What we know:
By secondary structure, the chain is mainly alpha-helical.
Amino acid sequence: MSSGDPVGDAARAGAPGPAGSAAPEPAREPAGRDPELGTTVAALTDDGLDRVRRRRLLGRLVGQMRDRGADRPRGPRAALRWLVDVVTEAAPHVPIRNRETLRRHFPGLDGDALAERLVRNASRATAAVGAAGGGMAAVEWAVTPTLLSSPVLLAAETVAVVAVELKLVGELHEAYGVPLPDTAGQRAAVLIRSWATQRGVNPLLPGVGIGTILGTATRNELRDRLLRRFGRNLTTLGPFLTGAAVAAFLNGRATRGLGDRLREDLRQARPAIGR
């Protein structure tokens, strides 16, 4: 029987559910890491999720992040380093459909038209994540004024939104014919670099694995971008359902902005790569 607390009920759920019809099998998890977290994050990127399923997955992610120590006392810098580690661990699990698969899923669309549909769907997905997080926060306002799990909820929402946007980054590259690396680690490195800089990335440039990229300036860019995203997600904690509405609007607008900037870059990259 449910306790009436969707965050607590979902966090206590055991195994992760299915990752959605369009999601490919996740990459093999490196030793010592949590494959369930990657599976949950991958499932949250499905833009076909209904509201109930999305909230349950977000609640499960809250529980998994709490199990990994998200609620331990940390200074701001240590907390950001922890969040960077979670994002870079989850990134290889983000399912990216190649161009052929995208054209099957969106018949009759290609190029700009396909890219516009991807941006629209991703904007709706991140808005829905914000609404789900705001709904959970609203329950906590009603149940307890201390909001003890709010930092974990904010971290989980941030990771979920970033994962949706990483998927958008990858699929926009595919839509414009800019291929991504085949290996999960190299692909994740390209996605993280593109998301952190908010620019399209030419994967034909000398690439590095995800372990190397963490020792470069990209890690600092990722940290700064995550800080801005986390700050924006603070709107989730508005009283009652105001946080849900504002978080949904801001998430959707930010994702739309990211998509539009990437499209401009990739339109310019496509002819050069075609030659």
